[in-house]
Structure formats: C-alpha cells, structure tokens
Amino acid sequence: MSKKSLEGDRASLERMVVDFAIAIPEGSPLTETEIADVRSKIQEGDLTPVLRVYEKELQSPLYGTLRGNLIRALLIQVQKTKVDVEVAMGGIDALLKSQELVFGCAAALRIPSLVLTSLTRVGLSA
Hints:
Layout: H1 3-23, H2 32-43, H3 48-58, H4 61-67, H5 69-98, H6 100-125
C-alpha cells in the first residue's frame, strides 16, 4: 500500500461524504461552515451524516434502495472500511519493518544454538 493510494482513498471518502451530506441534508441546506465541520469530522473518522441517513433508510429498506440513498450509504461505508484497512495494513507494515533487525538477530542466534546442541548430543552419546 503506497502513501499516495491511502491519501487518494481518504480524499475520495471525504468527497463522497461531503457530497452525500450536501445532497441529503438533515434539515436546511448546509452552510460553508457546516461543510467545513463535516470535512474535519471525516478526517477524524466520524461518518455521522451518513450513518443517520443509513439508519433512517433501514426502516424501509426497499424504498431506500429504490431511491438510491441506502446503496449510496453502503458504498460510502465500504470506502471507509477500505481506508481503515489500509491504515491498519500500514501500521502492521511499519511494525514489521521496525522489528526486522530483531527477527534477523533471532535467526542468526538460532543457527549457533542448533550447532551447540548437536555437538553436545554427539559428545554425550560418545
């Protein structure tokens, strides 16, 4: 996973949620301040506008599917999951890279210990 890929997916998620919040406001149309607030919440991982609509649409799933809001909310959640998985994979990758030296040392120490164990067994059996 490249850093550019993660940033692209995050930007895509942000655009999707902002467009969704603008298209389906909870009350009056969103102001620029409210849109900026939605953007900042998205960067923190908060998808509240999408989840509220998702919960409403689940009350009548067939109607929500026909209007397209339920499917759109589900696709946004899939994108959020994709971003979360990429972040987790990046963290695991960084952790493994930081432990590379430890793994190398453990492997290097394993060979001499096997040789000593073999020599000890041969010496004791003689």
